[in-house]
Structures are given as C-alpha cells and as structure tokens.
Amino acid sequence: VMQFVINLRYMLMSCSLSQKIDRSFPLIHRFIMGFGITDEIFGVSVSRKGKLNPYFTYGAMSLAIPAWAMGTMLGVIMGTVLPGNVVSALSVALYGMFIAIIIPPARENKVLAGLVAVSMVASLLFSKLPFVKSISAGTKVIVLTVIIAGIAAVLFPVEEDDTDAA
Predict the structure, then answer these.
(1) Which residues contact 21 (CB under 8 A, 6 or more apart)?
(2) Which CA distances in Å does 2 have to 25, 58, 63, 147?
(3) Cross-strand partners of 21
(4) pLDDT, tens digit (0-9, with 9 covering 90-100), for 26-41
(5) 64 near 34, Cβ under 8 Å?
(6) Using CA atoms, how far apart are residues 138 and 140, in angstroms rounded to an integer?
(7) What is the Cα–Cα distance from 102 to 84, expressed in whole angstroms?
(8) Can you spell out the DSSP letters for the chain?
(9) What is the pLDDT of residue 75?
(10) What residues does 52 pair with on adjacent strands?
C-alpha cells in the first residue's frame, strides 16, 4: 500500500504529460510513454514548449533508463564502500536535482513561481498542523499535488498550443 501511494506521483505526471501529446498519435505511443515516465523524463518533457512528440520521450528514455540502472548499481556499490556520513550527505543531491528542474521554468513563468511558493508553504503547514502532520510523507505529497494542481488548473488554465509536435 505504501509503495502504491508513493508511486501515485507517476499517475499525476502521466496525466500532466497527456495534455501535451498531439491527439493524432496512436494510443500505443501513450502507453509506451507512460511506461517510461520517471521524475527526470517528466522534468525534461514538461519543460518542452508546445506539443510533445513521443519520439522526444523515446530518446530521453533511451538515455535515462540505462543511466538510471547503472546509477542504481553504482549507488549500491558506493553505498557499501563509503562511510555512512558521506552517504547521508549525498542524499541532499536529490533535492538539488529537483530544484534544478523547477527553477528555470519558474523564472520564466510567474504563475509557476507562485505555485512553487504556495507548495512550499502548504508542505510546511502539512508538517506542522496537528490533524495532518501524522499523515505519511508520500500521502501528503499526493494530496498537496492534487489540491494545488486542481486549483491552479481552474484559476490558470493552460491555453491550447497549436504548434506542431517537434
């Protein structure tokens, strides 16, 4: 159940990316793209302007999936070799990666920058308020994502872009 809740973020990412895929592409492309959604592929795909061509995602997948597998292997090996305090310090790199993905688009889009700020404040509140602080971290992320993204979709709908898929 916990793994299911943690991985619900991929459903949210896939729903978000489905809005960027040209409807003329066959359904099989959507399935293959959905299979390859990771945090990194979502980051590069969502920041791409205009419609998303499945072949762009396939290119990203062909690099990211082997790199992810190799990185996992090296992480396991290094995790057993490096001292515990170094391994713990390296975990901060994951947050740095997410910040690197979020900051460039937020600089260009004030609505996105505002949503990032609202998300940070809401996350802080969810960790402090008595009736929600006991909820698991994964569930908090999903709940906040659905609420904030839903409100943003109503208040700031994305205009349909007629540019060709590139």
Answers:
(1) 29, 30, 33, 51, 52, 54, 165
(2) 34, 29, 29, 20
(3) 52
(4) 889 888 888 888 888 8
(5) no
(6) 5
(7) 29
(8) -HHHHHHHHHHHHHHHHHTTB-TTS-HHHHHHHHHT--HHHHHHHHTS-SSBPHHHHHHHHHHHHHHHHHHHHHHHHHHHHS-HHHHHHHTHHHHHHHHHHHHHHHHH-HHHHHHHHHHHHHHHHHHHSTTTTTS-HHHHHHHHHHHHHHHHHHHSPPPPP-PPP-
(9) 86
(10) 21
Q: Report the pLDDT value the prediction gives residue 161, as an integer from 0 to 100.
A: 55
Q: Are 158 and 19 in contact (CB under 8 A)?
A: yes
Confidence at residue 121, expressed as pLDDT on a 0 to 100 scale:
93
Yes or no: say if 41 and 61 are a contact pair by the CB < 8 Å rule.
yes
Give the per-residue pLDDT at 165: 45
116/124 Cα distance (integer angstroms):
12
pLDDT tens digit sequence for 94-142: 778 778 878 888 888 888 889 889 998 999 999 999 888 888 877 888 7
